[in-house]
Amino acid sequence: MERDPLKGKLPVTVISGFLGSGKTTLISKLVRHPGMNRVAVVINEIGEIGIDHDLVSMSSESVSLLANGCLCCSVRSDLQETLRALYNDRRAGRIPDFDRIVLETTGLADPASVIQTLITDTMLVAQFRFDGLVTLVDAVNGSSTLNQQSESVKQVSLADKILITKTDLVEEEVVSALRDTLRSLNQNAEQQCVTQGLVNPEEILGLGLSSRKSSEAYQRLFSGLPTTETEEELDKTQGRYLGLSQRSHPSGIETFSLVFKEPFQWDSFSAAIELLTDLRGADLLRVKGIINVDGRPLVIQGVQHIFHPPVELDEWPSENRDSRLVFIARKLQPDSIRLLFEASRSLQATSK
Amino acid sequence: MTKQRVESFIVCLILLILEVTMALANESMSRNMKLLSQSELDGFGGIGEGISLQQAADGRRILWLAHESAPKNFTGVDVTDPRNPRVIVQTELPHSNVRSNSLDVFGNLMAVAYQTKTVGLKPAGFDLFDVSTPENPKLISHFDCSGPHSRGVHALWFVDGKTVHMSSGSSDFTPTNPLDDQFYRIVDVSNPSQPREVGRWWYPGTRVGDDAPPPPRMRAPLDMGYRAHNTNVFPQRPDRAYVGYIDGGAFILDISNPSKIQVAGQWNHSPPFNGFTHTVLPLFSRDLLVVSDECVLDDGVDWPKLVWMVDSRNEKNLVPISTFPNAPVDAFIKKGGRFGAHNLHENLPIPTSFQSETIVIGTFFNAGVRVFDTSNPFQVEELAYFVPSTPRLSPAGAVQINDVFVDEKQIVYAVDRFTGGLYTLELTI
Fold first, then answer.
1. Are B410 and A1 an interchain contact pair (Cβ–Cβ within 8 Å)?
2. Residue A4 with chain B: CB contacts under 8 Å
3. For chain A, where do the domains classified as CATH 3.40.50.300 start and end?
4. Where are the alpha helices (H) located in B26-174, listed in sequence order?
5. What is the pLDDT of residue A349?
6. ipTM exceeding 0.95?
7. Contact yes or no for B214/B205 (Cβ under 8 A)
8. N or C: which end of chain B has fewer CB within 10 A?
9. Which run of H or E residues covers position B366?
10. CB pairs under 8 A between A and B
11. How many structural domains comprise chain B?
12. Residues in chain A within 8 Å Cβ distance of B19
């Protein structure tokens, strides 16, 4: 029996959003939702969401159980400490069992550092897996916040899903313009309008890869990947995904994708990634893709300088054997990256 | 707020915290294991350390369980649908001073051990049954091991249809210390109606008349005897027996000539550790041994009782390289009953048994059944666990998961020592 590197780890969904984006409203509705049974929600200011009436018990000084089975947990000194304590308390039976974690970040938090913590902390990476970043943007102030606050740009750029809040307070055109701006920053993240913080947990949980099985989760994770077969279509795809017409945001952040027909060897692929992160890691906001390494399908995911351990899928999800990579990056030329990977591969071929 | 109101508020708060703590203490705990069913086995839910799964000719899958103590002998459970286990047969012991504790099934042949409470009683030995009609086990023969210094058979291993390897006393064996009464015996049952002993080995110095002096004792209350416990032989190495010899440690015995068994390798962590080596499970492709202790005293008196990873590249120099991660000690040690290592799933070489060279499943009494990934033998990882809530009427005040068997479909069968019976679980790793 071969162990699945992802299955069995506790999924962690991160919720970010700038101050005033409606996080507290969303979280306070979410924790009371019947679908949140056996979910632990880590909350910054637990007092603000007013759970007293729904409280069943205090399992420990920082963890409360609600009637629907949701665990509300206040943040300890830092993220690592909080997640470790949750894991240890669960294992010791000090708090009820939970199957996943939802983590609220502070308004000013850089979600990249949260994701990096989940990937790099030895204990956390053994027990947890990052399951997706959900970013809230409010329709009233979203555009101006994005223009003024670089942190909010990053929150949007890294997101797997964007929730647009307070859409009932503005005209439709404002929402439409905001949607375009958000798309220019992050083409892959699905956008969803939310009013009064009402969201179905299923819509924001399970965004990530939950096993090495080439399954629905995979399709969800990489739905934005190009799937073309012919060179001609490939060119069109590149044109579309290069997003030249959408390079409108002043931050210089854009989404683009690259397709490689020839398989890689792991050494040459990882060498190219290493060079890229050494030179431009800070501008490499998010990278994800499926790579053909000697015929095997490997999923890679990275945030700035840090990459998750690659996961080999049990099989290719379709007939397509191309390597496909999506980048959300700041002021990076797609052609330069393409050349870097091609050069690395050509060196590999020479040394063979 | 008046002083009285403050006081009553504090009392309420304390009661609430106590209530919550007690409620939590009695909740099951699980990680990557899902309970499919529990069967209290018709009110006789105390199971020893004998579990095997028969694939019956009619397609049914029958789980055979040896009881921890009288009045029941063994129980057959139809687990064809693991969500709906059904007791199909449950047998009685002849009297209350004997227990079966151990059994194995090969094809339609079942061997059942009998150990008496004190020496000199009968039945002490093992039975062979034909279970081709599972509802009606037919006795084929009884192998008598009774004697003035014998309590009979504690544990047996029967996985090839021809040979019973066991921990047993004998009428002709007088131990130098009464605690050392059970030794390793090999019995040829290729003719099931006429079992005959073909080999034996005992720890030097434990039999009256030995040249070697009697071995030194563990300090009280840890002195549990120099006796065999699990005596496992696998088709990968038919010339080796892997034997847990309780306070004598772990042994690899060369059984290529059963009439002249020799020590091929040995390792004992005790003292300074607290003795009771129970199981020696070889991971053949990796030159490793997984060695489990047994916790035998309640409330942590004999803690630590561990599972060890031992490098066996050189049989003559067995080297411990790590121990398995423990369940949180503070949370379990005083929870009730025993806490610590016990039985492992032993990769039984039968078609219905799960086989793995990396995934190891063990039982830990009040810390339930726990699953480990040993891919890195220096740093074993815990993958999954299931700790049932306290079974009804449990005298220990907590579950005491005693033994485990995992089938080829990765369904995990774990049993409670007293009242909880059978827990059928799905591994979701």
1. yes
2. 429
3. 10-204
4. none
5. 63
6. no
7. yes
8. N
9. none
10. 56
11. 1
12. 57
Interface-testing mutation among B13, B16, B24, with chain A (most A C-beta atoms within 10 A): B24
Task: Specify the residue for token string 């945030």.
Answer: A303
Distance CA B245, CA B226 (A): 6
CA–CA gap between residue B361 and residue B370 (Å, rounded): 6
For A123-150, the pLDDT digits (tens) are 999 999 999 999 999 999 999 999 888 8
Contact A59 B31 (CB under 8 A): no
Which candidate, A192, A127, A128, places its Cα nearest to that of A160?
A192
- Tell me the C-alpha distance between A62 and A59, whole Å: 8
Burial class of residue B420 (count of CB atoms within 10 Å of its CB; 0-12, 13-18, 19+): buried
CA closest to B374 among chain A residues: A3
A contact test, residue of B12, B13, B20, B426 with most A CBs within 10 A? B20
Contact A39, A98 (CB under 8 A): yes
Residue B357 resides in a domain: no
Distance from the Cα of residue B314 to its chain's centroid: 27
> Which residues are within 8 A (CB) of A289 and not within 5 positions of it... i.e. 6 or more apart?
A222, A225, A257, A299, A300, A323, A324, A325, A326
Residue of A nearest to B18 (CA): A59
Assign residue B274 the CATH number of its domain: 2.130.10.10
Q: Which residues, 6+ apart, have CB-to-CB distance to A346 below 8 Å?
A: none
Kindly indicate the confidence band of residue A216, based on its pLDDT and cuts at 50, 70 and 90.
low
Is B24's CB within 8 Å of A94's CB? yes
Q: Outline where chain A has alpha helix (H).
A: 23-30, 79-91, 111-120, 122-127, 142-148, 150-157, 172-185, 201-204, 216-221, 231-242, 266-280, 334-351
Helix or strand holding residue B17 (H, E) = helix B3-25
d(CA B51, CA B30): 22
Domain A216-351 has CATH 3.40.1280.10: no
**Model confidence, pTM:** 0.89
Task: Check CB contact under 8 Å for B428 and A3.
Answer: no
The gap between the terminal CA atoms of chain B, to the nearest Å, is: 54
DSSP state of B339: B
B83-111 confidence digits (pLDDT tens): 999 999 999 999 999 999 999 999 999 99
Which residue, among B265, B270, B247, B245, has the nearest Cα to B255 in the 3D structure? Answer: B265
Instruction: Write the single-letter amino acid at A252.
Output: G
Which residues in chain A touch residue B383, judged by CB atoms under 8 angstroms apart?
3, 8
For residue B179, being part of any structural domain is answered with yes
pLDDT band at A1; cut points 50, 70, 90: low
Q: How far apart are CA B371 and CA B374, in angstroms?
A: 10
Q: CB distance B387–A93 less than 8 Å?
A: yes
Chain A residues close to B381, C-beta within 8 Å: 126
Residue B346 lies in a domain: no
**CATH number of the domain at A10-204, out of 3.30.300.30, 3.30.420.40, 3.40.50.20, 3.40.50.300?**
3.40.50.300
B104 within some domain: yes
Contact A1 B358 (CB under 8 A): yes
- In single-letter form, the type of residue at position B299 comes to D
- Contacting residues of B for A95, CB less than 8 Å apart: 24
